[in-house]
Amino acid sequence: MSERILDLRPEKLVRIQGASLVESIRAAEGRTILSEMVCPMMSMLYDVSNPELAAGLGADIVLLNLYDVYKPDVFGVVPLQGESVIEAVKRLSGRVVGVNLEPATSDAMFMGDKEKLPIGRKATRENARLAYEQGAQIITLTGNPKVGVDNKTIQQAIVEIRNEIGDDIVIVAGKMHAAGIKNETGENIITEQTVENFLTAGADIILVPAPGTVPGVTVEFVKRICDCVHQHGALVMTTIGTSQEGADTETIKTIALNCKMAGADIHHIGDAGYAGLAVPENILAYSIAIRGRRHTFRRMAMRI
Fold it and tell me: Which of 31, 64, 200, 245 has its CA 20 to 30 A from that of 274?
C-alpha cells in the first residue's frame, strides 16, 4: 500500500515519481496542496525563493509556471555546480516539483490579442524530455491567458509526451480558464467527453477549475467531473487560476471546502496573489481548511 503524500518526508518527496506519486496522492484522500509560482518574477521575500516560501507555508507540491526548458531559471534559486535548476528547487524546498508546458493552437477562435509562446514553454515531446531530465516529477499541460490552448491540442500533447517518457512522469491535463479560446469558456472548459479523451490519451490527473473561480463552474458541475474521473480510476486537481488566490482568506476557505466536497484529490492555488505567488496567508489558510493544523504545521516544519 502506498504511503500518503501527507506523511512523506522531504527526502522522499523529491524522489517519488510516476504511479507511486499518483497513489500517494490518492491515499491522502483530498489533502494535497499544490502551489503554483511564476519562475521569472521576483521573490516575495527578497532572499528566500518563492518555492521555499510555498513549502514553508504547507505546500506538498510546487508547480513552476513560465518555466523555459532551454533557459531554465527560477528567481532566487542558484544551482550548485552540476545541479539543474529544478534539482536546486528540490534541494531548497524539499517538495515534489512540476512544470507547466503549453500546447498552443493556431486553429481556434481567440479572445483578445494572442501572445507569442517561447519555444521552451511549448508542450512538445522534446521539451517534456528536457523537463523530465532536469528533474520534473509532474508535467501539467495547460494554458496561460492569451496563449491560446484548446482541449484538442492538450489531448495531442498527452499522447506525444506519454509515448516519449512512458510512465515515469505524472501528466496533469486541463485548463484553469479559457486560455484565450472563445468556445471553451465556463462549463465548456471541460466536459465528460473531454475527460475520457484525456484519460484515453494517457493523462493521470484531470485539471478542472475550482467551484466559483470561473463563471458557471459550480460545486455540482465540478462534482460531476470528479465523479467521471474517479469512475475511470484517475485523480482530479481543482485549480484557483483566476487571481482569486489574491482574495481574502474567507473566500479561500470557502473555495477549499467546496473543492473537497466536489471530490478534489489535489488542491491547486495559483500564482497571481500580488504577483508571482499566491498571497502567503492564503496558502496557509487553504491547507488548514482541508487538513487541519496538525498536518499543516507538520508539513511546514519538514526540511531535508
Answer: 31
Q: What is the pLDDT of residues 199-209, one digit of tens each?
A: 999 999 999 99
Cα–Cα distance, 151 to 197 (Å, whole number): 9
pTM for the whole structure: 0.96
φ, ψ for residue 235, nearest 5 deg: -115, 165
Residue 10 has pLDDT above 60, yes or no: yes
DSSP state letters, 47-110: TB-HHHHHHHTT-SEEEEES--TTS---TT--PPTT--HHHHHHHHH-SEEEEEEB-B-SSSPB
**Residues 65-85 pLDDT 10s:** 999 999 999 999 999 999 999
Q: Which CATH superfamily is domain 10-297 in?
A: Phosphoenolpyruvate-binding domains (3.20.20.60)
- Residue 5: the pLDDT is 98
- 8 A C-beta contact, residue 247 and residue 282: yes
Which residue, among 168, 142, 166, has the nearest Cα to 155 in the 3D structure?
A: 142
Residue 17: helix, strand or coil by DSSP?
coil
The sign of the dihedral angle between the CA atoms of 103, 106, 107, 111 is positive
Grid coordinates belonging to 224 = 460531476
Domain ranges across the chain: 10-297
Q: Which three cell numbers stand for residue 205?
A: 490527473
Whether the pLDDT of residue 1 is over 90: the answer is no
pLDDT at 185 over 90: no
